Amino acid sequence: MQLPIRRLLSRATWIKIHLYLALIAGFFFALMGLTGSISIYREELDQLLNPQLVIEQPSGKRQSLDKILSAVRAAHPNRYGSWTMEMPRSPHSMVTVWYEKPRETFFELYAPLMVSVNPYTAEVVASRFWGQTVATWLLDLHTQLRLNRFGWNAVGISGLLLMVSIGTGMYLWWPGLRGIRAAFAISVPAAYQASLMLRISHHVGMMQLAFDLHRLIGLLSATILLLLAFTGFHLSYPAILESLVGTSGMEHGGTGRNIISSAIPNKHPVALEAAEFIARGPFPKAELRRITTPAGDSGIYRINLRQSHEINLRHPYTTVWVDRWSGHIKEVRDPSGFNRGEVFTTWIWPLHTGEAFGATGRLLWFLAGISLFVLYVSGLLRWLHRRGKIKDRELNFAALRPLFYRVQQMLYRIGLMLFRLLVWLLQRAKTYAPYVIKRCAALLQWLRLRLTQQKRLGKM
Q1: How many CB atoms lie within 10 A of CB 390?
Q2: Which bin fits 60, alpha (ψ -120 to 50), beta or left (φ > 0)?
Q3: Strand pairing of 301-306 and 113-118?
Q4: What is the sign of the dihedral through the CA atoms of 292, 251, 115 and 95?
Q5: What's the rounded Cα separation, in Å, for the pair 453 and 456?
Q6: Using one digit for the tens of pLDDT, what is the confidence trace for 26-64?
Q7: Where are the domains positioned within the chain?
Q8: Given a cut of 80, is residue 103 above it in pLDDT?
Q9: In what side-by-side order are the strands of the sheet with 287-292?
Q10: What's the pLDDT at 188?
Q11: CATH number for domain 51-132, candidates 3.50.50, 3.30.70, 3.10.450, 1.10.3470
C-alpha cells in the first residue's frame, strides 16, 4: 500500500529525515567541518608549528632552479624519477619539492615526500612525508578519514548527505515568500521573528538558547555549506563532473595529458632554467607555480604557470610541456580558450577552499566549517533533552545582554552579505545552466543506451 504523497512530504517526515541524518552522519559532518576549517590555513599552521620553515629576513636573489634541484638530489641520492618543484607564494616561504611515490609510503593512497628548500641558499631545511605532519594529517582526516580509498568514498557520500541535511533544515525553517521579504527588510516585523529566528533568546533556558543558535547559525551558513558539500562531493568523484560538463584530465591535482618525448636522447638535455624560459614564451607575464622534471628517456618537462585572470592560486591550469632533448614546446594548455564546462571545472577547488574570494572568503569558509560543529552539538543537546537524558538549566546573561545585541547585529549583517553572495552565485549559474542541462541530457541518453544494450545481452 502506497503512502499518500501529502503524508510522505509532510513536515513530520522532513523532521525525521533531518533528525536521522544528524544522528547517523552528524558526527562526521562536524569532523569534516572542523578539519576543513583548520586545513584552510594549513600552510600557516605548518609554519607556526615548524618555525624553521619561515625565512625571517629574505635577502639576495633566489638560487637557480637547477641548483635547488641538485641540492634535493644530493640529500636524496637514491630516489630516482620525477620531482615536482612548487614555488613559494611568499618571500618568507620555502620551495617545496615533491617526490610522489617514495618507497616508505608506496602503498598508501597519497603520501609523497615533501622536501623544503630555502630558495635563497638552496639549503634543504626539512624532508617529511605527507600525513606525518600535523597539518597534512588533519587534511588527510578531512579528505579520506585516514582510511585510504574507503575513507575517500565515505567522505564523498557524506557530501551528498550533507546537502540533503541542509536542504531539509532550510525546508523546516522556510517561512514563505512573505516571511522571506520581511527577513531581509531593514526592520523585521514581530510577527515573523518567531518563525525566522533572527533573534537569540538569551533570557531563557540553555535548551532554548541551543535551539535558537542552531536555527540562526544554520540559516546564516546554509549557502556556504551547500557550496562546500557540492564541491567536496565532486572533488571526491571528479569523473562525475567531467561526464556532466564534457571535460577530461582536469581533476584537482591532475597532470593533464600524458605527453612523451619524441626526440632522440643526446648529451645536451635542456636544464630546468632553460625549460622555464622556453615555457614563458607563450605566457611572458605568467607566474611560475610548478615544474615537474622528466622521468626516463621519454619523459618531458611539465611547467605550470598562473596567468593573472586565473581563479586558482595554488593549482592553476596554464601548462606548457617542453621536450628536454629538443627544447621544443610539445603542447600548451591555455585557460583563456576553455569552454564553459572547463571553466566551471576550474572553479571547483577555489570554491571549496574559499580562495576564490580572497582572505575574506577564506575567513567565511573557516567560520562555516566551525558552524557544522556548533550545529551538531546544539542539535544533539536538544535531542538529548527531549529524550530526557539531560536537564535544562536557567541562564542569566543580563550582564552580557549588550554583547548579545552586538553579536546579533553582526550576524544579521553577515546574513545579508551571504544573501548577496547567493544572488551572485545564482546569476553566475544562469550562464552555465543551459550547458550543464545539455550535458546531463546527453549523459542520461548514454545511460539509456547502456541499459538497453545490457538488456539485449541478457536476453541473448
Answers
A1: 15
A2: left
A3: unpaired
A4: positive
A5: 5
A6: 999 999 999 999 999 999 999 999 999 999 988 889 999
A7: 14-50+134-253+342-460, 51-132
A8: yes
A9: 123-129, 113-118, 95-99, 84-86, 287-292, 301-306, 318-322, 329-333
A10: 45
A11: 3.10.450
